[in-house]
Write a structure and sequence with these properties.
Layout lengths: L1 H5 L3 H10 L2 H12 L3 H14 L2 H8 L4 H8 L7 H14 L2 H10 L2 H12 L3 H14 L2 H9 L3 H9 L1 H5 L2
Length: 167
């Protein structure tokens, strides 16, 4: 995968990684995360440009804390447009459990972008997010994001049927 990525074949490399068994997939994720930051940032930009978050986020979820912090420090994950596409992809795919550990490692300004993007989702998508968070018991990871949302977004979240129904 890493050699293919060096030749600009990140989409193909992600497809192959997705076919590997769990142990090999974790090894591939680690090798990719330990690439030169410029090359690794290219992977994130490719995921953004080609809509490959559904393939990339499960690999990021397999990383150690140290490797996840290296990914979170990439310049592309300070870009509001990139972060916005990740949030929308996570909403569409339900990959909250895979995404939130990375969010926890992002710099504060990037976490704020994630929170603001989530807070600006249409009601139906925001409600679906709350249902998924409840289903996967991810409140400990989500509540810090809700805390940094602006007040109108917080009020929207707390008024959602899914939120009022959680116990």
């Amino acid at each position: 995968m890493v050699a293919a990525a060096g030749n600009g074949l990140w989409p193909e490399a992600l497809a192959v990684a997705g076919l590997a068994g769990p142990e090999r997939r974790a090894r591939v994720a680690t090798l990719a995360a330990r690439q030169d930051p410029v090359r690794l940032d290219g992977l994130v930009r490719t995921a953004h440009e080609q809509g490959l978050w559904e393939s990339l986020l499960p690999l990021v979820a397999l990383l150690s804390g140290e490797d996840r912090r290296a990914v979170a420090a990439l310049p592309s994950l300070r870009d509001a447009e990139v972060l916005g596409t990740v949030v929308r992809a996570v909403v569409a795919t339900g990959l909250w459990a895979e995404f939130l550990p990375l969010v926890a490692e992002l710099p504060p300004e990037s976490r704020k972008v994630v929170a603001d993007t989530a807070g600006a989702l249409p009601d139906a998508e925001l409600d679906a997010m709350v249902l998924e968070v409840e289903k996967q018991d991810l409140w400990d990871a989500v509540l810090p994001l809700v805390e940094i949302m602006d007040e109108p977004a917080k009020e929207r979240v707390f008024a959602l049927p899914a939120f009022r129904g959680q116990g």
